[in-house]
Amino acid sequence: MQDFYILQRTPTALNSDQAKKWFYTIEMLGPEGIMAGDDATTTNLMLGMQDEQYVYILPLVRHLTSDEAERIVEGYMRVTEHDFEIETSNVYRADADFGHPFEYDINIEEDARLTLYNSMARQHHNRWIQERQQNGWRFGLNLDLTEKTHPAMRPWDDLPESYQQRMAVKDKELVDFYAKNKSDFA
């Protein structure tokens, strides 16, 4: 097997149109230059049998990230109707639950946890305000569904504590939030 690859397993052979869809989905939705070939213009689609299933393999120049693989899988699901499984050289599976890499090793200091939590809550609240404003809501002293007013339609820091609902957040979620927003903490 190639060092880097993406493959499709299917119980029935693909016809030429289906094979082309597989190839072109990877070519169009994969990162530029991801497919390995003999030269800049030649890429080989390999066909094999494994455990009574047809296997269509495209060699790659590197592993796909999970986001890249997810994009290819979602795109391919839109253009085909047959049963299939997709695997990459880093064994990406859309239904896999690999857990969080720090699932059992997280130890966040209490001050850092509070900082992350408040930042996360502020971001969620701001998104909530934007969604409401797009639907015609505005600040009002009382909740009024007809007038579309809400007393929480103001900045997080200006809310009374009774409106600052405490979300149940796991340390894993805080670490993920930090990873996605670390430039905000510089």
Give a topology summary.
Layout: E1 5-10, H1 16-29, E2 46-50, E3 53-59, H2 66-79, E4 85-88, H3 110-134, E5 138-139, E6 149-150, H4 171-181
Parallel strand pairs: 5-6
Antiparallel strand pairs: 1-3, 1-4, 2-3
Helix pairs in contact: 1-2, 3-4
Query: Using DSSP, what is the number of strands?
Result: 6
CATH architecture of the largest domain: 2-Layer Sandwich
CATH class division of the largest domain? Alpha Beta
Strand order of the largest sheet: 2-3-1-4
First and last CA, distance: 44 Å
Domain module tally: 2
Q: Given the helix and strand composition, which structural class is it?
A: alpha+beta
Helix content, binned percent: 25-40%
Write structural notes for this entry.
Strands 2-3-1-4 form a four-stranded antiparallel beta sheet, covered by helices on one side. Strands 5-6 form a two-stranded parallel ribbon. Helix content is 34%, strand content 14%. By secondary structure, it is α+β, with helices and mostly antiparallel strands. It has helices spanning 16-29, 66-79, 110-134, 171-181, and strands spanning 5-10, 46-50, 53-59, 85-88, 138-139, 149-150. Residues 100-104 have low confidence and may be disordered. Strand 2 (46-50) and strand 3 form a beta hairpin. It folds into two domains: 5-88, Alpha-Beta Plaits; 110-185, Globin-like (Orthogonal Bundle).
